User: Which sequence fits this backbone?
């Protein structure tokens, strides 16, 4: 706390000095104070911003969306030192190819072989470990200090060189995706995915990741450079850092129900997979889900979006209506791989609506949660 | 050119009055800049006509823009800020810098007294550092037509780097320095527009739509002012005239895996006895990750780079052996 105040004070003084200096010496120097402040802020964090390079791996399909499409390229990507003893946090986007070899080059030029120890498919994070100690860990801004309209600067290593490439913007919104992400209009793209978004004091606001409306593996990357970018804050990273450091990947959680919109609102369970948390809890086809964790569920979209933020291993409270009776279930979610098939539908149902084991990432073909 | 002394300061420090003056200052800058950039219209592809931007560099209608085959149209024309459309022709092209000089035919419109047009002189991009504000004047998506003014945008200089990009599947020949900005300029129409400092100096010419080979994404870049200046002064490109002396590659003694799943990665299969590789301690199954700091992803890249080094030259390899990264320095021998 003291240290934070000290930094704030120093920073304020620096700004005041800059401002007076530019007034005095550069009569035509409009807009000089901010760029100097941007560079000073970047210089504080740059020692913690690493360059990631990968060799090998399969080429994923082109990424499309938001009017843009692109192929995963061969260039460097960005990561951020998370712990002095060799943990690097970055975006899982940088490893969609499942590379054979990953190297991390520190700001001081030392290069290491890195192990990808775990991914968080919900927050689009990845944790790497290198065999190093005494690494410079950056200072993070407290979540309570985020303000919409605050300057924010994204740093990325994709172009190589000594200095990180920067894109400047502001915080556009906080608490996006049910509190998962902070939104910025700095241009986020593969240039800086995995790198930090920082404030003017050189503190990390969040880690740049591609997140899109449907939260599938590469969703959001299609929105690159759009002015709608997302970062994961420290409170979200703290929720998962111990598991990631232990090598436990975080995958979306499912309770195992095929669903459709219901009248008069809510979501009807069409079928219950077996085995599944829903089956184990005694949920039945025909039940109408009206709330999850106390949040009203009006439509399939609402439910899918909310569930896309819940990881396997987490518990959720599902409230449903069975006939006129309101019932509440507490279920621990499983990964899609631990969910069994849906039973065959009754024979009078049209074939097109036959439930399948289609994963929830294909909601168009078969909504399942 | 810019008379304003207003300083844009952080909102923290700026009162409403100062903020208003800052707005005025930017307004002055772009007002000065707008008539110095023209709309260009060139050859047609099917139904659609090529369009772009160009920067005036002389009062008699010389315009610099990005080189494109679409400039070779019979109907090439440039439209100035007052909406006058002048016939135009390409007078000089520079493949290495990807620049073209276009002459607007002022006499074709004004037979007796051609106007004296406002123009820019390029300044070196040393005037800016990453993090500096930049403004952009161009005609993205040709939204400005006739005498409508061009579009202006605000952004930041992201970095200065070497261009490593392609158009569709073809690498762009220019591999010189570029200015990368975080304003979105990689769009139809912006090519040939002006990149300016916040106080109105012309530091770069906006490049064509290009895809970065490093990121796979659209690259928002500009050819820096010093390159434009060299082009205007007719300075030959060193890059284009340099010839690579053919050298006989030095001997390293490394034989790579050629078959099986490891084909694409650069694994050492055999190390010849008493060779530069054996003296440097290389072993079978070592994975070569970088040569002289550059990541090597394919066997082909290994050979391409090694073939550029002659006997006596030192090549530094980063080798992955187990979990460790080992650096090996090879002094190449005479060919065997």
Assistant:
């Amino acid at each position: 706390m003291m240290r934070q105040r000290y930094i704030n004070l120093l920073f304020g003084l620096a700004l005041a000095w800059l401002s007076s200096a530019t007034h005095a010496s550069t009569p035509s120097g409009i807009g000089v104070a901010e760029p100097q402040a941007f560079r000073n802020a970047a210089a504080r964090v740059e020692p913690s911003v690493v360059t990631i390079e990968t060799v090998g791996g399969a080429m994923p399909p082109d990424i499309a969306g938001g009017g843009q499409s692109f192929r995963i390229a061969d260039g460097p990507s960005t990561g951020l030192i998370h712990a002095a003893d060799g943990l690097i946090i970055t975006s899982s986007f940088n490893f969609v190819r499942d590379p054979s070899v990953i190297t991390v080059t520190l700001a001081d030029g030392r290069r290491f072989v890195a192990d990808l120890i775990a991914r968080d498919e919900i927050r689009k994070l990845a944790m790497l470990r290198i065999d190093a100690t005494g690494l410079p860990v950056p200072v993070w801004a407290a979540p309570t200090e985020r303000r919409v309209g605050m300057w924010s600067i994204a740093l990325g290593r994709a172009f190589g060189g000594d200095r990180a490439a920067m894109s400047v913007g502001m915080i556009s919104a906080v608490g996006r995706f049910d509190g998962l992400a902070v939104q910025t209009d700095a241009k986020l793209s593969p240039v800086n995915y995995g790198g930090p978004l920082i404030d003017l004091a050189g503190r990390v606001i969040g880690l740049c990741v591609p997140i899109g409306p449907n939260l599938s593996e590469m969703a959001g990357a299609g929105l690159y450079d759009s002015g709608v970018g997302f970062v994961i804050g420290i409170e979200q990273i703290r929720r998962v850092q111990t598991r990631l450091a232990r090598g436990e990947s975080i995958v979306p959680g499912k309770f195992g129900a095929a669903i459709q919109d219901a009248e008069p609102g809510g979501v009807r369970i069409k079928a219950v997979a077996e085995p599944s948390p829903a089956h184990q809890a005694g949920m039945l086809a025909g039940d109408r889900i009206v709330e999850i964790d106390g949040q009203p569920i009006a439509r399939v979209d609402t439910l899918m979006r909310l569930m896309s933020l819940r990881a396997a291993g987490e518990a959720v409270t599902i409230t449903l209506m069975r006939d006129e009776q309101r019932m509440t279930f507490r279920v621990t979610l499983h990964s899609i791989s631990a969910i069994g098939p849906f039973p065959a539908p009754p024979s009078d149902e049209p074939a097109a609506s036959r439930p399948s084991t289609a994963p929830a990432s294909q909601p168009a073909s078969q909504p399942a949660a | 050119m810019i008379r304003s002394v207003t300083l844009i300061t952080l909102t923290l420090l700026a009162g409403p009055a100062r903020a208003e003056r800052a707005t005025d200052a930017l307004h002055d800058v772009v007002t000065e800049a707008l008539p110095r950039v023209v709309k260009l219209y060139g050859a047609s592809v099917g139904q659609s006509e090529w369009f772009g931007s160009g920067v005036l560099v002389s009062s008699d209608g010389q315009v610099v823009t990005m080189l494109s085959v679409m400039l070779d149209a019979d109907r090439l024309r440039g439209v100035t800020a007052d909406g006058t459309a002048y016939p135009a022709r390409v007078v000089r092209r520079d493949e290495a810098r990807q620049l073209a000089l276009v002459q607007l035919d002022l006499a074709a419109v004004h037979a007796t007294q051609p106007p004296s047009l406002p123009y820019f002189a390029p300044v070196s991009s040393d005037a800016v550092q990453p993090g500096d504000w930049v403004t952009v004047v161009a005609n993205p998506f040709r939204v400005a037509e006739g005498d409508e003014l061009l579009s202006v945008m605000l952004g930041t200089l992201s970095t200065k780097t070497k261009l490593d990009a392609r158009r569709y599947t073809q690498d762009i020949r220019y591999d010189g320095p570029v200015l990368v900005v975080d304003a979105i300029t990689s769009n139809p129409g912006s090519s040939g527009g002006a990149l300016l400092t916040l106080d109105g100096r012309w530091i770069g010419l906006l490049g064509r739509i290009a895809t970065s080979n490093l990121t796979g994404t659209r690259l928002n870049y500009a050819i820096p002012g010093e390159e434009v200046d060299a082009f205007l002064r007719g300075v030959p490109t060193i890059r284009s005239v340099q010839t690579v002396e053919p050298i006989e590659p030095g001997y390293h003694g490394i034989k790579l895996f050629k078959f099986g799943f490891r084909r694409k990665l650069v694994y050492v299969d055999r190390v010849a006895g008493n060779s530069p590789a054996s003296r440097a301690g290389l072993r079978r199954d070592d994975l070569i990750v970088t040569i002289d700091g550059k990541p090597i992803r394919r066997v082909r890249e290994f050979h391409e780079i090694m073939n550029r080094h002659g006997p006596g030259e030192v090549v530094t390899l980063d080798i992955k052996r187990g979990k460790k990264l080992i650096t090996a320095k090879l002094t190449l021998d005479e060919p065997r």
